[in-house]
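FIELD: query
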Amino acid sequence: MMLLQRLAAYAGRDATAVPFHRDRQFHWELRLDEQGQPCGDSVESLVFPDTTGTPRGAVHRVPAVVRTVGVAPNLAADDVQYVLGWSDRDSKPARVAQCHAAFAELMERWANSPEGRHDPVAQAVAACYRSGALHQLRQPTEFTAKQGVLITVANEPAYQAPSVVPFWTGEVARRKGAGSGLCLVCGTTGPLLDTVPGKVPARLVPGASNDAALVSVNERVFGYDLTTQLTCSPMCLTCGEAISAGLVNLLDSPQTASYGGQDSRLAWWTTAPVTIDPVTLLFDPDPDQVHDLLGSVHTGTFRPADAATFCALTVGGNISRVMVRDWLEMPLTQLEQNITTWFHELEIAPLYPQERPHASLEQLVRVTGRWLRRDRRYARLGSPGAARPDGIQRDLLRSALRRTALPPSVLAHLLHRVRTDGRLDTARAGLIRLALLRSPLTTETPMPGLDPTNTDPSYVAGRTFAALEALQYDATGGALNSTYGDRYFAGAITNPRAALVTGRKDANAWLRKLRRSKRGAAVNHEKTLDELFELLAAPAGLPGYTTVAQQAQFLLGYHHQRAHRFATLRRTTTEPEELPA
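FIELD: result
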């Protein structure tokens, strides 16, 4: 119930909220005069191009409640089939007739109600349906039965009439009421709901094909103890509306994250205003702000956190139901410490000066996909064949916010992509280091940059492979169609021994060639290789077939050696032949 209480409280922040109203897009306008007669021979289009040139209808916040398979008209604005009684080729004329009759009956009850009896707008709309004037309207050439129609009276939207809110609130209570009892959300006794009155638009819930409900138990087999609807989670009319509105507002707020092809959407908020939102750093890791956070780790002091509670909700969809994939509530101080630790463990030495040592969440999600060699980029988020896990965003965010280990499948998948793509960049290396540090099976503590004291055979093997690559590059000037790395990198990750033995033999020829043009560089390369192969001559020897953790160590060693070499080349002021390998 804590989640529902938080959602109800969040809804209270919207001062413009109207009970049982939802935003909806409208394609058509039915214009009536003050006597309820149509102002033209047809409806008028409300479709105009948006900023991108895409045709879109006008959005209005109108009376609306959840409807499933039954006929249930909304007040003063609804579908073409309800307002006008027009059917298209995909609709059934008999059902459309039922919808139109129900809408006309609702307009009549509105006009005869205590709220609408003295409202000229309600009287005009009801008069229109009594007169049968709608049957004389000309149908547009292109329309669908489920497009929205907005009714206006004297150029003012009918849903803005003063009698709409009180009448519609009573109508929803009549439709959705389920007797009286204790509301588990607010703890008061009063009229209860039978079903949740609102739905979440499908665009806000990844995986949902229709607008989705947070609580939907329409068959006994789905409910606890074979009960249906809200029997096991009773809530009053006010709380039910607040929960629905709060969930929609939350998922449509700027504090959300959902990338293409992913199975979830994260939304977060705090129970009180805060000065700094540490979650935003996950999506845009500003170097200065990250540096300040990491400084608090080294000094053991954290800035005084705002007196607020952090809340995060992760949802996914299944047809027309909202699935709560994760719910988190913690003090803001704890969240800040968790995110600080995340950046500390994600840090990696960059290959190039324009790169940051901490990848953003979008980068981490992106690099788990397929690398397109011809295009020199990763497959786009959500594109077919991207080979990206559909839950990777959720796994990364859960690990960052909760300070937990990543699922073992994440590291295994990433290693597979590195082998298949033949690409290890800074973001992938950072994610590998993070996964190793958070794995309960890892005893070592990999450093962000080159660690000469690390004698792990797999780590040293990775360094050695990078050193052999560098030697061949300098010896040939990079003028090769197929390099040592191209031929052996994928195999070396799982079996370094075969690749290193071959590389050691080839190194003699590369050194001879390099000595003829850059003797100093040849000496440095030879010295580096001798030191690395000496470490591999220890009792453990050259590693053969490796485990997932050893493959990760190999790639870290490989990345660290390359990053160290590139950094040395950038800062040196000596001649090229004197540069270390």
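FIELD: remark
The CA atoms of residues 140 and 569 lie 70 Å apart.
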